[in-house]
Write a structure and sequence with these properties.
2 copies of one chain form a homodimer. The first copy, chain A, has 432 residues and is α/β, with parallel strands linked by helices. Helix content of chain A is 36%, strand content 25%. The complex binds NADP nicotinamide-adenine-dinucleotide phosphate (2 copies). The site of one NADP nicotinamide-adenine-dinucleotide phosphate has 26 residues of chain B, from α1 and α12. Chains A, B: InterPro entries: ACT-like_dom_sf, ACT_dom, Asp/hSer_DH_NAD-bd, HDH, HDH_cat, HDH_CS, NAD(P)-bd_dom_sf.
């Protein structure tokens, strides 16, 4: 690198789990980064809330500031990494950075899922890049492959395990037979779940990521509020055992599908066959399974969170954004949109697994089958287990609309011969 | 798109399995491609060997030619897709295309592994892109993630199942207990193996891909001739059963490791634990497992071959290359090299699994253990099975150099108490 050549100056907003690792990598990998970018990448400043909080990295003296707004407005800042999180002040800081001519990398799924289009338009207008690989599935390169590698293909479905906490809990339930509460407590003890686990357990985190994945995969605009969402708090040991009986496992899936020209985007627990690549995703790992017309079935697997893994994704974006900044060009943006309708959950086509305790009388099977057929739902398999007081029917349906399926279950619950509907769960990952 | 704006014109060299699907996608996806590139992408010509051979796609009249050299030299060709394969005329055509100002996409692993640097220098000199995602693991986006997503991280190891034919055969052997020959015949009947299976079975195809992966992962230059190579023809049903006994499965792995500043690049069958993400890669699927300092463990999975999947990867490259061509910029090239030494196989650190039929005498275990320790190899586990005439010892070593391990096995073979060494195989995919 010749002296006096260009230097890229980076402001890092936030120095917590992710930010501290970004700062560390910027220092440790300085030489490699310079070689890959084509110019040295220097730290211009690090914005935090509390100047004297303990940090996992040593920030060079004079670079820490509580004035994030002042930092992003500085003339000598070329690139801004936003790892504060949440909606404000993150949004205003990103918008200000773009207006002041910086290119931006962020890991902020909440903000992107709520208000991505505002940010993308600002980036477009400023002629700058806004990259956010780390916002979905942490370290796993999934947005870049969707956006660039599959740019000449047509993605038809995305199934993701995009929340490590819930995957850890469900994996525990599957491997130990424990219930939800017990498994959640174990996850909390081991640091895989927070004291208030709502965002993970109720599927809010996964829904934000589902919105981002659907937007990119189908070149449309989906926000978190468009996403149908069910968490895992109601998944029981009986559900997990029922899944095992049919050679399946329960996973919390973020699903985005293209049906004709509409998209279906949803987050809910589902049974998938153990032979499906997603079934072997254990513990807190994440994975995103992609189906496309030409490429077929792809899967991307890795750690979905953690300071260092997430920082790796941020740095990957930073190198691209820095190269573009230097060249005065932009990467593939979000501009080319087809605005597609989002299907309501009731109109989405799904399959159900239903286990029912029934009276062991002649004709019970026929009566239950009739309930399905009255709602236009055809049955794929039905298994009758036990005898007498313990008789149980396990039905797996063919595809129908979610409204038809849930109405069928409603009717079953009210039927005289049905003692209890012991497990209801959607089934995904079928071969077609 | 305003009329009279720029149009990108593509020459496709070769119209076989991959080329015909590239031509099909260029036609079917024309509208989406134009939106993503920012300009219409038009077919300028398709070069073949035989004008009137049957094709899997209808090539518009007048576009088929046998004059590939003339096609790439044409002024109105902006982008060249090379899907002929082999060294010549592919190399000369790519070099000519670059000299004439075109950007190039190729799927040609053989050429890249033999003479990549010549091509990269020509691209650099011409100021054009040379992309080749489809050359490794077909449809799976692996080169772009290695090159771009992990650009701020440090990759330490790559383990790949990059040959579908051999994975199909080994998977059959594992699931049915059949031998190599029988499984190869089944693969041939089902079209997973060619009539002459040498390139796949002997690991030549995997070695080419290993060279490309190592070069990209470690920013260095590795050619196919640097790659240590063992195929699967000697893998026996006994090896596969031995692997199963220790909860493992046999896979043909392409391995690239960074040890201090040297690289080890090799292709050989190895036992990996069934809990390893690569173990669940079935049939002819491919997967590449990547370990890096910050991101940790990532895996990329999908179809490693086939006309349409491979064409998907080609088109993904084509969109990027076309955007760069339009902007007058280049993507991340291969220029920033650290030239690293390639470790000879003997100096590479590996682990061995060795099964031995022994005389059932007192002191046998001690004698065998002594052979390992004399070569400086420490033993991780040893299991004694059977009694009398059927006594067997199964030893799994700790890491040592491959030379130490193979010398140990040599010595065992010559020992009086050893009736037969029934299985020797390297072990990979350890937790560290
Ligand atoms: N952690 C992960 O594994 C992970 C994975 C993927 C994506 N992400 C995303 O990455 C982002 C950061 O997550 P994190 O886990 O690193 O969060 P964190 O540990 O809570 O760190 C947040 C940082 O932001 C700083 N901050 C808060 N308010 C600020 C303000 N008004 N001005 C300036 N700085 C402010 C905090 O300063 P103080 O240190 O002074 O309090 C802290 O350093 C979030 O968008 C998250 O969704 C995280
Ligand atoms: N097939 C896969 O699944 C796959 C996967 C990954 C990568 N690849 C790579 O993709 C490339 C193409 O593979 P493929 O399977 O498509 O091969 P293929 O089916 O054998 O097709 C080769 C094509 O090249 C044409 N050709 C041969 N010599 C030529 C010459 N001198 N001038 C002009 N055209 C010539 C042939 O013309 P005719 O049709 O007239 O004979 C044919 O159309 C290879 O580098 C391969 O390694 C293939």
């Amino acid at each position: 690198m010749s002296e006096g050549g260009p230097v890229l100056r980076v402001a890092v907003l936030g120095c917590g789990s992710v930010g501290s690792q970004v700062v560390r990598l910027l220092q440790e990998q300085a030489e490699d980064l310079a070689a890959r970018v084509g110019a040295p990448v220097e730290l211009a400043g690090v914005a935090v809330r509390r100047i004297d909080a303990p940090r996992e990295v040593e920030v060079p003296p004079g670079l820490l500031t509580t004035d994030a707004a002042g930092l992003v407005a500085r003339d000598d800042v070329d690139l801004v990494v936003e790892v504060i999180g949440g909606i404000e002040p993150a949004r205003s800081l990103i918008l200000s950075a773009l207006e002041h001519g910086a290119s931006v990398v962020t890991a902020n799924k909440a903000l992107l899922a709520e208000d991505g289009p505002t940010l993308f338009e600002a980036a477009e207008k400023a002629g700058r890049d806004l990259y956010y690989e780390a916002a979905v599935a942490g370290a796993i390169p999934i947005l870049r492959p969707l956006r660039e590698s599959l740019a000449g293909d047509r993605v038809t479905r995305v199934l993701g395990i995009v929340n490590g906490t819930t995957n850890f809990i469900l994996d525990k339930m599957d491997s130990t037979g424990a219930g939800f509460t017990e498994s959640l407590e174990e996850a909390q003890e081991l640091g895989y779940a927070e004291a208030d686990p709502t965002a993970d357990v109720e599927g809010f985190d996964a829904a934000a990521k589902a919105a981002i994945l659907a937007s990119l995969a189908f070149h449309t605009r989906v926000t978190a509020s468009d996403v149908y969402r069910e968490g895992i708090a109601d998944v029981t040991a009986a559900d997990v055992a029922s899944a095992a009986d049919i050679g399946s496992v329960v996973k919390l899936l973020a699903i985005a599908e293209l049906n004709d020209d509409a998209v279906s985007v949803r987050v809910h627990p589902a049974m998938i066959p153990r032979s499906h690549p997603l079934a072997s995703v254990r513990e807190a790992y994440n994975a995103v399974f992609v189906e496309s017309q030409a490429a077929g079935q792809l899967m991307f697997y890795g750690p979905g969170a953690g300071g260092a893994p997430t920082a790796s994704a941020v740095l990957g974006d930073l190198v691209t954004v820095a190269r573009n900044h230097l060249a005065g060009s932009r990467g593939v943006g979000e501009s080319a949109y087809a605005q597609r309708a989002v299907l309501p959950m009731g109109e989405t086509r799904t399959r159900y697994h239903v286990a029912i305790d029934v009276d062991d009388r002649a004709g019970v099977l026929a009566t239950v089958a009739m309930a399905f057929s009255e709602h236009g739902v055809s049955i794929q398999t039905v298994r009758q287990e036990g005898r007498g007081a313990d008789a149980q029917l396990v039905v797996v349906s063919h595809e129908a609309t979610d409204a038809q399926l849930s109405a069928t279950v409603e009717q079953l619950r009210g039927m005289e011969i049905v003692r209890e509907v012991t497990s209801v769960m959607r089934v995904e990952g079928r071969d077609e």
